[in-house]
TrEMBL record:
It comes from the Bacteria. Gene3D superfamilies: alpha/beta hydrolase. PANTHER family: ALPHA/BETA-HYDROLASES SUPERFAMILY PROTEIN, ALPHA_BETA-HYDROLASES SUPERFAMILY PROTEIN. Pfam families: GCE_fung. Residues 101-340 form the 4-O-methyl-glucuronoyl methylesterase-like domain. Keywords: Hydrolase, Serine esterase, Signal. The keyword Lipoprotein does not apply. This is Acetylxylan esterase. One of its GO terms (molecular function) is carboxylic ester hydrolase activity.
Length: 395
């Protein structure tokens, strides 16, 4: 019995050590990032045309094959309907639309429920923030009986923007067993492929289907859709914007490893921890890089580069070292040269700005907010400032 107990203690210690996290900058290993402007066969990319025709598609495939999985684009049909009559709300400032999106393929259906508030007095179609909601559904309560700063609809409406949300569980429940019950029922072949789409990819796919709806809604300016995500939702918002260039801008909030932060820094959360705890998020091939980040053919600066030349805002929180604030900032900085191909000059400083010193008057934006891993009214206020700057609102 004693021998069994000692063996168990040793095993637990081993597993704990294997997943220990580094929060010490002096322990960040030396690393070399893949050159975002050099093809697999080592050919330099010096012009926008070569980026668009050669390097960008190559990088998309690398991310699909090694991390996020393929992104299916075909289905048999899509239908949009209202689950309730449009309703005035927020003391007449907004109209609530509750939309059901149904996607059909091979006799199967996936349903996406969208909550959308549109400014009542808008004189033209409104730009919209679309949240990939990975928190409780009550955070995006359509009745507004519960108001959450995670999704401050009133603030956004008062600023002249529409605001929408869907819940990740409609696409792929965030569970290592149940995730197969959404979109992947339409694409069962993805479950068998080593580079097949899993939960994060399914959430990004869902964001694109909501954008399909926005293109049909006359109250929404579908050319100004800002996809937003927090944490794992922020990983999905980045992937959605990289895959679907119809999104006008991307906000990725506290998305950390496999989101906006550089993997090779091995700071905070690491690939091995993600794949052990959330094996349903990324494709099977990603597990090859557990504790082997240097072998990745990509890093997250290259994912940010796929959003170029569209505006991108990455954020962190000062107490959320798990999501590697410095690594997020460095990923943005290492994507600047792709934005430069489009004559977009980054206004990011050379070193990370101070706490609560947002840089939002830029197509490449960043802030590190005081506080915990969360998305707050402070964050949203700066998202609005960022949108105003980039889409002609109040600057």
């Amino acid at each position: 019995m004693l021998r069994f107990l000692l063996t168990g203690i040793v095993l637990i210690s081993f597993l704990s050590a294997g997943h220990s996290q580094n929060y010490d900058e002096s322990k960040v290993p030396a690393y070399t990032l893949p050159d975002v402007l050099k093809t697999i066969d080592n050919k330099p990319v010096c012009a926008r045309g070569a980026w668009e025709k050669e390097r960008r598609p190559e990088i998309v495939r690398l991310f699909e094959d090694n991390i996020y999985g393929q992104m299916p684009t075909t289905f048999d049909g899509i239908n949009f309907s209202k689950t309730a009559d449009d309703q005035p709300t927020m003391n007449g400032k907004a109209t609530l639309k509750q939309v059901l999106i149904e996607v059909f393929k091979d006799g199967k259906t996936v349903q996406i429920n969208v909550t959308l508030f549109v400014p009542t007095h808008a004189t033209k179609p409104a730009p919209v923030f679309l949240l990939i909601n990975n928190r409780g559904k009550d955070n995006t309560d359509p009745t507004r009986e519960k108001k959450s700063e995670f999704w401050p609809a009133e603030m956004v409406i008062d600023s002249g923007y529409a605001i929408a949300a869907f819940h990740v569980s409609d696409l792929a429940p965030d569970d290592k067993e149940a995730y197969v019950k959404g979109v992947l029922q339409l694409y069962p072949e993805q479950l068998k492929a080593d580079n097949g789409m899993k939960a994060i990819g399914a959430w990004a796919w869902g964001a694109s289907r909501v954008l399909d709806y926005f293109e049909k809604d006359p109250d929404i300016d579908s050319k100004k859709v800002i996809v937003v995500g927090h944490s794992r939702g922020g990983k999905a918002s980045l992937w959605a914007a990289a895959e679907d260039r119809r999104f006008a801008a991307c906000v990725t909030n506290c998305s950390g490893n496999s989101g906006a932060a550089l993997a090779r820094r091995q700071f905070g959360e690491r690939i091995s921890r993600i794949n052990a705890t959330f094996p349903h998020w990324f494709n099977t091939n990603y597990k090859k890089f557990n504790d082997n980040e240097a072998a990745l053919p990509v890093d997250q600066h290259m994912l940010i580069a796929l959003v170029a030349p569209r505006p991108i805002y990455a954020t962190n929180a000062s107490k959320d070292l798990w999501a590697d604030p410095k690594g997020t900032f460095l990923a943005l900085k290492n994507a600047e040269k792709v934005y430069a191909l489009y004559d977009v000059k980054s206004r990011l400083p050379k070193t990370p700005p101070g706490i609560n010193e947002p840089v939002y008057k830029s197509k490449m934006a960043y802030h590190n907010r005081e506080g915990e891993h969360n998305m707050t009214s402070y964050d949203w206020g700066n998202f609005i400032n960022f949108a105003n700057y980039n889409f002609g609102g109040r600057k």
